[in-house]
Specification:
The protein is an alpha/beta fold and 217 residues long. The protein is 51% helix and 14% strand. The protein folds into two domains: 2-134, Rossmann fold (3-Layer(aba) Sandwich); 142-213, Orthogonal Bundle (Arc Repressor Mutant, subunit A), CATH 1.10.10. The protein is built from ten helices and six strands, in the order βαβαβαβαβαβααααα. Strand 4 (78-83), helix 4 and strand 5 form a beta-alpha-beta unit. Helix 7 (153-163) crosses helix 9 (179-192), helix 7 (153-163) crosses helix 10 (203-213) and helix 8 (168-175) packs across helix 9. The longest helix has 14 residues, at 179-192. The chain starts with a strand and ends with a helix.
Length: 217
């Protein structure tokens, strides 16, 4: 796995590089701002980019915009975004643009090495990895008049774990139920949210987006 890191905090940037190299991962470039990051994408064609949300010069959304541009230059690039805080607009915008090969983690998750590496691998493999704290805070802000009120507490639990990017096997392990029970809950979720099979959209992604956004349908 070839990785480019864009992080303006030198300590975190070098710490990430050391951690990943210790895991025999190939960190091909580390950068502290947008232009060197995009140049590294063009030069190295990495498998994954790890990008800080807030970067110079304004420390607002440069990282998000750089990640979008990197994926435009290299379609299929996996991107793992790091943020010090839960920033709702950034999280939902990332997912709305297509959930595959994308992750959004709080920086504190990096210190939980196994969880961080699992999320990185999931994104590299084409999945989605959303920090549980991000999911929790987004849900707390959800409007109450949503069709999600149709879901049972158990179905909400399943959908919350889906929102973290977990597959059915891991969800079953987390909930101490069979994988068949998870499949049944997911079918019920799709039915209650009126998500019919459609080649144009992934029902799992659509359900998660609706869950995070809470928009009435």
């Amino acid at each position: 796995m070839r990785i480019v890191i864009a992080e303006d905090d030198a300590l975190l940037r070098e710490g990430l590089a050391l951690l990943l190299r210790a895991e025999s991962l190939d960190v091909v470039a580390t950068t502290d701002s947008v232009e060197p990051f995009l140049a590294a994408i063009d030069e190295h064609r990495p498998d994954v980019a790890i990008v800080d949300v807030r970067m110079p010069p304004t420390h607002t959304d440069e990282g998000i915009r750089a990640a979008v541009e990197a994926r435009r230059r290299q379609p299929g690039l996996a991107v793992l975004v790091l943020s010090a805080y839960v920033e709702q607009a950034f999280a939902t915008d990332l997912l709305a643009d297509g959930a595959s090969r994308l992750g959004y983690l709080l920086k504190e998750r990096v210190g939980r090495v196994d969880e961080f590496l699992t999320a990185l691998q999931r994104v590299a493999d084409g999945g989605t990895a959303i920090d549980p704290e991000v999911v929790g805070q987004l849900l707390a802000r959800r409007r109450p008049d949503s069709t999600l009120e149709r879901l049972s507490p158990r179905e909400r639990d399943v959908l919350a774990l889906m929102a973290e990017g977990l597959g059915n096997t891991v969800i079953a392990e987390r909930m101490f139920v069979t994988e068949g029970a998870v499949h049944k809950h997911i079918r019920s979720i799709f039915a209650k949210l009126e998500l019919a099979p459609d080649d144009r959209a992934d029902r799992r992604v659509t359900a998660v987006l609706r869950y995070l956004d809470g928009t009435p349908r």
